Amino acid sequence: MKLSQFKFDLPDDQVALYPHSSERVLNRADGTSQVFKITRRDESRLMVLHRKSGTIDMFKNKVKGKPKEEDFIRFKDVLDYFNEGDAFILNDTKVFPARLYGTKEKTDAKIEVFLLRELNQEMRLWDVLVEPARKIRIGNKLFFDESGTMVAEVIDNTTSRGRTLRFLYDCPHDEFKQELYALGEAPLPRYIIDNRPKAEGEDFAHADDEDMEYFQSVFADKEGAVTAPGTNIHFSEHMMKMMEIKGIKPAFITLHCGLGNFHDIEVEDLTKHKMDSEEMHITAEACKVVNETKEAGHHVCAVGASVVKATESAVGTDGFLKEYDGWTNKFIFPPYDFGLADSMLVNFYHPYSTLLMITAAFGGYDLVMEAYDKAVKGGYKFGCFGDSLLILND
Question: Which residues fall in a coiled-coil region (predicted)?
Fold first, then answer.
């Protein structure tokens, strides 16, 4: 397929800049009331696409006249489409506070350093991206706190924006990481940071502690992601408990989501695009849950594009999931024959996004693009904090 086939018009106000929230009204005995805004990660909208019948559901029941907000299917309603014995494959990667701001020695120029991964614990070496890159050269020292204790030296250029840093911090490794992460912020995507209101005197918006909480799934466990597996962050503790009560089994795999999902595709012919590699791990325990579910004839739902990428990298020719420790740069776009999950749960994403392409490959290009058209016209929110699409094989 061609890149241009994934173009659609997305209004700026339909990109979710914050987690879903809803208003609650507290009525007091004295007749007064107060409105509270409460963040509810599991109350964003959910659209349901039925792959075989070609139908798309947006509302809980038939709607007469103009739909009200309470008429829409909610993310937490996804459990109504599954039964005891079914399984959800979830990504338990944990996001770390990867975005740091500092200054360059001598000039005090402000710089952004985005941590990608630690290369060597003993030498405190990190693979990073820097901005503005043109000002950061080998040999430069970068300062990250007012006391000057957290200092890094640029020791290599890796790409146009990529650098290798050596942090000059002499202490036990655990203490170093604790101090480093204390200086960092939640690595929210640029489409969020660049469009949020910024404080007076600031050049850009900053993420806060609340962002670090909500840009993280409730089952996050294995540290290593620099962006969240968007669909997984909609699950609440309540939903996880309801899954347990209903007998829907979780299978946890790990794929450390990288920035490659947000890189612009620069070729029209999608077969020529190369994805960045991402580290992934699939345990024997996860394989057991998924494969026993398939053998019993129950449904397996892949939650998020990262899970689809991981499981399609590790599925055998027999259709069963295999253990895996390594990396994947799998790029999925239509047409593609999926070997494992029979259903998929994913967010709505931007035009030209590789995440949209995975969704279109799973649900069928025409039907998915129809769903996206309905989502735009219906005021659905897009992005990692946005609304979601459930694709069923019925």
Answer: none
